[in-house]
Here is the input.
Amino acid sequence: MLMKEEYIEKIYAGWLGKMIGIRMGAPVEGFSYEQIKNIYGELDGYPIDYRGKEFAADDDSNGPLFFLCALEDSGKGTEIEAQDVAEALLNYAPFEHGFFWWGGYGVSTEHTAYLNLRNGITAPRSGSIEQNGHVAAEQIGGQIFIDTWGLVTPGNPDLAAKLAQKAASVTHDRNGIYGGIFVAVCISYAFVEKDIFKIIEKALSYLPADCEYVRVVRTVMNYFESYGTNGDWEACYRYIFEHYGYDKYQGVCHIIPNIAVMILALLYGKGDFDDTLNICNRCGWDTDCNVGNLGTIMGVRGGLDAIDYEKWRRPIHDFLVCSSVVGSLNIMDIPYAASYIAKQAAALQQLELPEPYRTIFEERIDSCHFEYSGSTHAIRVRSEHLHASDIYPDLEYTLQNTTESAASGIRSLKVTANIMQGGENLYVYKKTYYGPEDFHDSRYDPAFSPVAYPGQTVHVSAMLPEYGNEILVSAYAKEQHTQNIYYGEKRSLSKGKWEQLSCQLPALDGGLIEEIGICIHVKGNRGKGTTVVCLMDDLYVDGNPCYGICMEKEKEELWTIVHREISQFTRLKGLFYLENNMLHLSCGDFGEVYTGKYNWDDYQVEYVVIPVVGEKLLMNVRVQGAGRCYAAALLPDNKIGILKKENDYRILATTEFMWRHGNEYKITIHAKHDTISVEVDGQELLSACDVDRPYLQGSIGLGVLEGSHLACKHISVS
Here is the structure.
């Protein structure tokens, strides 16, 4: 049975609505109704325009996406348990930085549950009232991280309620769980029902009728039915403030006041996307969370047609980054996230995917395919004049998703640039690496590893429409450290004919690819303006990486005084710095850092390292997050071993090796299917075959245990 294309598009619309709500609410998070009104008046739309600099990561998008990974990681489908979601939390969240709010044990609900899990308290006890008390257990997080469980169950509220209960119980209890069930069912049911009252009633039917959560929702509904005909939502807000305001509840962000204003906005918004989100944002309190949840519900309910493109979508431009511990998964876009959710929805309900989505999701889920109506995949445009001394006017351009033609599927991206002159290069590109300079702020401490690497091949399709002026095009990639640009074959496009372009990237020692795309080489005379039109489709990279990381070329990325990263790396935990052209990692208990692409399968990685102090020093492969990887390890008693991490490390194989602190070693690890083998200075010392649920793909990294300190001079991957 085929999954409905309508559902796939509504998943995209729902996730897009979530991002819109987060962007709306984040700048005024924690503001009161009075503060918002005094500062912004009748706030309509985004309080801040982030264009020019990007909006960073947010917990409201981190949690829903990475907790959902439990479905794929566990392989249990509809029988997933709370502990499976707990394992996803442990695997993808860095230790006490980024991802969500680390407000302290007993203060931040998620922080509390995370430390419970770290210390062996399993889910659902990890989030229970028995363990954490009523206040911590009934904060808002059970509601705000739940959207994806509604999105993966389109039109199946029974399953949405079941999965949401499991997921929310990892961190929350009672009202915290009820909120998760309520929001997930609203989203699921909105795929098949547009009546707001019916959506709310359906969600309430899964909750205990006498619980506080239901009582508050019904109180707001009754108020609306009695007094809401005049549309005075502010009077309803005053009622909520008087009876259910923040002062009535303990904790930083209790769920009850926030669900009250969400219901207010749903009712007084009367099914209009704009009005619903704007009203909710004007109410204040936990705005990014509340408006984000409503954005998902209203996005699914109304689909893309309900979301005004110029007002809501163009400013966001499909941009999304995250702050998990897996750096290459932190670089994504809204279509990628929506595709991942839709893929899990199809698998969960055992549905076949229709084309072209089946091919995209299975073969190139992180490509720029433009199949979602209006999607742009955060594609950017810049110009570069070949004659730097010339004064060149500001570039005027538009990016438009179009059904005019496509290399595959039915949609592509039309690029139009005005006032271009001969000799100009126009770059239409996707960022494959980000740094602090790209962002407006440091929200939730994002960090990144590239998603394109030297040795790989860039692919893209381009077409010159019949009405376009003659151009030359080539695929290209740009390297960050040297600013070198690598071009594929330059081609003159024939009108109305799609051309498949490629650029084979050379192996580079110390190369960091920061963008890929097409370069349009404008023909004609210098000084004479023209208009350039080109269609592009199916931008992606494939092939095996072949590169080195030279630590003397890497740099400290300063975000804030407390958020510092080393380029290309993400940090789980530990002291992590550059000194004397080496990367240093040390710890009081344990430390790990990672780099590379999350889906590499068979590869060889060579580490040039110096053990400084301590007796447990690790070189990691097949890293799938904080909880899963293999490692070659220098161990006590003059041993070297192969370890497997399943939250904790265990030994797969060891052998004698007389290693010494201060000596330099070249340690090469071969990861081939289910076998890991290790060489030191060209001599193979040991191997291990893992037949117990082996890790068959993952990135690379370094680790130290029990107070050790490791220095790394160079890493090479092939």
Notes: The domain at 380-545 is CATH 2.60.120.260 (Jelly Rolls). The two ends are 41 Å apart (CA to CA). The chain has three domains: 5-327, 380-545, 569-717.
